[in-house]
Here is the input.
Amino acid sequence: MTIQAIEPVVDSRSARQVARDTRRTEAMARKRMTSRGATIAALVIAFVWTIPTFGLFVTSFRPGSETQSTGWWTVFVDPNFTLENYGLALTSGGTALTLGASFLNSLAITIPVVMFALAVAALIAYAFAWIDFKGRNFFFVFIFALQIVPLQMALVPLLSLFSRGLEINGVGIFPGFELRGIEHSFATVWIAHTIFAMPLAIFLLHNFISEIPHEVIEAARVDGAGHGQIFFRLILPLSAPALASFAVLEFIWVWNDLLVATIFAPSSSLPLTQSLNSLSGTWGSQWFLQAAGTFISIMVPLVVFFALQRFFVRGLLAGATKG
Here is the structure.
């Protein structure tokens, strides 16, 4: 029996030629996968979709007297801008709170909710992924199925539960123990938002955590690590992309929420969306202030998104492709 040696194929091309051929291959693949008609249609849709936002942005800088008599497009022939709208929007409000106070309330609501939701969902997702217990698959499917329940159907039962189990005015968590002070007036909103976030959070984090190599978990168990050490030293660092991606989603959802906060938040703790809703006045005569307040409200979500952008797509796709 003879063994024939296979001689390696030597690429005689230079580095410049390899780069040129690679670019040519990428261009050919891009040409096959794209369509000029689809590209033009996408650009037209994006342009039309952006027009209302651009008009709102222009209106936020126009004097109030001009917004009531002319359209925003007249700035192209008669430009007239002012920053007074932003100052008035921050110091005035349609509710008992100014927009600035509501801005702080939104931060006080959103940041704890994101922390609570991530903490609880990560623990539950780890249990479903790496702890074998009876009925695990059934409970996971049941929790995931809760996403189809409309949020509005849970508002009245949850409000009834809070009214009986918690004292909404001065939130009493345990019998005979009452928490007082404005810093605790957000408790019902925190609990409501955390509950509503659980199904999707558990689903996304479970699918990411379950993809962690089994050998890594087994090696930690061989070294004597318990579930607590595995979770805090392995799962959390490796799941950072999934945690960051859901943190972005949850932050934007809670920040832009109006319904849940209006129902559960006390009048002294109304968020930014509630003040924006009433900022235009009874008959909408001051909607230029609402336009300015809208762009004030989107600054924080934009900062959060761009700060966690590198984790967002990676974590979201990794948590949504396995089920």
Observations:
- Residues 158 and 164 are 10 Å apart (CA to CA).
- Residues 167-184, 319-323 have pLDDT under 50 and may be disordered.
- The longest helix spans residues 99-130.
